[in-house]
Amino acid sequence: MAIPQKDDDQQTQNPPAVGWTGRIEQHYRRIKENAETYPYVWSSYIVVYGGFGLWFAYRWRKLRRTEDRVRVLQERLRKLAESEESTSSAAAKSDKASPPAYKAPN
């Protein structure tokens, strides 16, 4: 009887996975074989998901810039409101301290 050679070849190519490192290496080999077998599928994945990644990075950066601009504008508005409040409160204090310009006749 002849012993099938295919089983022997498979065992030499893919030794049994020992522990989690062996499983990771085996999984990596399967992915690598698949990528070599179907290069157009994998390249399309890279193009599509790479495009999504670029779009996401662009939108994220734009959002951060917008938030920074809003923070600067809010700070300027807060300083302006404080300065107006201090000038109006100073003017109100000076009006209360000074006697009225009109005096009633006796």
From TrEMBL:
Keywords of this entry: Membrane, Transmembrane, Transmembrane helix
Region Disordered, residue ranges: 1-21, 80-106
Name this protein carries in UniProt: ATP synthase gamma chain like
Residues spanning the membrane: 40-58
Residue ranges, compositional bias (Low complexity): 86-106
Domain of life: Eukaryota
Organism for this UniProt entry: Actinidia chinensis var. chinensis (Chinese soft-hair kiwi)
